[in-house]
């Protein structure tokens, strides 16, 4: 069997020799050079299983080399050596296509772990294309699938953006399953669901006796995700004090449990997600700019369902197959037509809820449009000129008992419908957390509960 080759591009002779010795001990055929020109010569002669390159070399920056390898040798992962704590240049390298980066001074155990991950990347390609679980053939979802495959080959932090219910967690899980970390753990964390006072202990763990109630050593989420991937869902909900600690953990690839005297190295790939606009939160001072740039190396936007209507039918069939494996129930043509015209503010999660409710309430084995119980579309507010035309000066306004022009409903029904839609949207946005929904609506929890009962919202 051919010994895998590694190309090391480093102008510091002592460091290059140290890396060569370390990689040789891993049964690699190591070729060490000190300039970009020599690196290009070696790439022209033979193929390499991986490449380690310093960012700054005597004849220039290595970013063009990283880009060339990514373009001409897509199966060769590249890791970049960069000055200690120089996050900006590391981010540049990741955006150029680097697999990962190593901060100087080089930690040999961390370097070995990185090399092992890089070798798994080329040796253990998944037999099945897991991205096909992202249902649909619309241009938007095809682009998302292609991006996911590219991101799976990198170690760069990823920021998955998109509306609530658009499939951000599924996208993160697919990146993990297609990556060389697939055999490691995938740890999704809902940042908004952990009480602020417990965040540090939950993320980093604690030592016995470090605070009242700490009766045993407890590993944190970073330790649980070691060797795998961590999804920071709703990362925008983290308080600023925790954002600082998270930034250091990501940057230094090490954490310190509460009560511990030394840091502990962790190998975790970070994927972040939120339905909020992080850039706006940075402008408002509610999210740290340095953390934003650290987790948003590459953005993966997940399209809302309203922008991929051609995928509604195949998604519906896929969800029905899960809800009714025996295939006893089907949807009528008018039901499919109604779904195709609906805007789905709650996206795929709302589609699942609608179908689950319809299957439970439908009287026969065919679900019709009325069984879906889709919310009525919000009537458009007439422009002032249109209002004037409807009620010219001097004419009497319609009597209070007469139906209004808005779909024939009374004013009370119309207002009730607006209230229902606003509450449903707030519930979707906050994942049906009633406490947060009440806060977002500016009402008390008791008032929200009263309105839910009044409007018949389960």
- The backbone outline, from C-alpha atoms, is globular
Distance between the termini: 63 Å
- Classified in CATH, the superfamily of the largest domain is P-loop containing nucleotide triphosphate hydrolases
Give the low-pLDDT segments: 380-390, 392-408
Helix-strand category: alpha/beta
Mean pLDDT: 84
How many helices does DSSP assign?
A: 20
Name the strands of the widest sheet in spatial order.
Answer: 2-1-3-6-7
Q: How many strands, which pairing sense, and closed or not: the largest β-sheet?
A: 5 strands, parallel
Number of domains: 4
CATH fold annotation of the largest domain? Rossmann fold
CATH class of the largest domain: Alpha Beta
Count of distinct strands: 16
CATH architecture descriptor text of the largest domain: 3-Layer(aba) Sandwich
Q: From the alpha carbons, calculate the radius of gyration and give it in angstroms.
A: 27 Å
Residues in helix, %: 40-55%
Task: Report the portion of residues in β strands.
Answer: 5-15%
Description:
With 458 residues, this protein is of the alpha/beta class. The chain has four domains: 5-123, Response regulator (Rossmann fold), CATH 3.40.50; 134-301, Rossmann fold; 305-372, Helicase, Ruva Protein, domain 3, CATH 1.10.8.60; 406-458, Arc Repressor Mutant, subunit A, CATH 1.10.10.60. It is 44% helix and 13% strand. It has helices at 13-24, 36-45, 63-72, 87-96, 108-123, 139-152, 168-177, 199-204, 221-224, 240-252, 278-283, 289-295, 312-323, 333-341, 347-361, 369-372, 384-390, 411-429, 434-441, 445-455; strands at 5-9, 29-33, 50-54, 56-57, 60-61, 78-82, 100-103, 158-161, 186-190, 229-233, 254-255, 264-265, 269-274, 298-301, 330-331, 366-367. The strands form five sheets. A five-stranded parallel beta sheet has the order 2-1-3-6-7, sandwiched between helices. Strand 11 and strand 12 (264-265) form a beta hairpin. Helix 13 crosses helix 15 (347-361). The longest helix is centred in the C-terminal third of the chain and has 19 residues, at 411-429. The chain is globular, with a radius of gyration of 27 Å. Residues 380-390 and 392-408 have low confidence and may be disordered.
């Amino acid at each position: 069997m051919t010994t895998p080759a590694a190309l090391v591009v480093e102008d510091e002779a002592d460091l290059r020799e140290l890396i060569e010795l370390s990689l040789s001990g891993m049964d690699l055929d190591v070729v060490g050079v000190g300039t970009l020109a020599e690196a290009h010569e070696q790439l022209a002669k033979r193929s390499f299983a991986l490449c380690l390159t310093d960012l700054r070399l005597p004849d220039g920056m290595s970013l063009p080399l990283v880009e060339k390898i990514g373009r001409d040798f897509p199966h060769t992962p590249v890791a970049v050596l960069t000055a200690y704590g120089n996050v900006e240049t590391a981010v540049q390298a990741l955006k150029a296509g680097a697999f990962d980066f190593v901060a100087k001074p080089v930690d040999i155990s961390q370097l070995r772990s990185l090399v092992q991950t890089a070798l798994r990347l080329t040796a253990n390609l998944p037999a099945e294309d897991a991205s096909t679980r992202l249902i649909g053939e619309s241009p938007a979802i095809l682009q998302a699938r292609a991006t996911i495959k590219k991101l799976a080959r990198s170690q760069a932090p990823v920021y998955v953006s998109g509306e609530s219910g658009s499939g951000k967690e599924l996208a993160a899980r697919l990146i993990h399953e297609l990556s060389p970390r697939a055999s490691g753990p995938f740890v999704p964390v809902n940042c908004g669901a952990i009480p602020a006072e417990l965040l540090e202990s939950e993320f980093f763990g604690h030592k016995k006796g470090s605070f009242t109630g700490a009766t045993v050593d407890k590993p944190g989420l970073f330790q649980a995700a070691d060797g795998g991937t961590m999804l920071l869902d709703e990362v925008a909900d983290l308080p600023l004090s925790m954002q600082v600690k998270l930034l250091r953990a990501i940057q230094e690839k090490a954490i310190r449990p509460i009560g511990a005297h030394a840091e502990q190295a962790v190998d975790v790939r970070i994927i972040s997600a939120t339905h909020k606009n992080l850039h706006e939160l940075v402008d408002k001072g509610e999210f740290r700019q340095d953390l934003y740039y650290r987790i948003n190396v590459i953005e993966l936007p997940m399209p809302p369902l309203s922008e991929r209507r051609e995928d509604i039918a195949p998604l519906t069939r896929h969800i029905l197959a899960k809800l009714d494996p025996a295939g006893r129930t089907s949807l009528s043509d008018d039901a499919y037509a109604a779904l195709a015209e609906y805007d789905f503010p709650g996206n795929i999660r709302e589609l699942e809820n609608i179908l689950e409710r319809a299957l439970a309430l439908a009287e026969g084995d065919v679900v019709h449009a009325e069984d879906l119980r889709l919310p009525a579309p919000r009537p458009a507010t007439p422009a002032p000129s249109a209002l004037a035309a409807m009620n010219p000066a001097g004419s009497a306004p319609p009597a209070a008992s007469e139906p209004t022009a808005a779909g024939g409903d009374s004013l009370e029904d119309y207002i009730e419908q607006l209230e229902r839609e606003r509450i449903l949207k707030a519930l979707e946005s906050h994942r049906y957390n009633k406490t947060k929904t009440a806060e977002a609506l500016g009402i008390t929890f008791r008032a929200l509960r009263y309105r839910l009962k009044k409007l018949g919202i389960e």
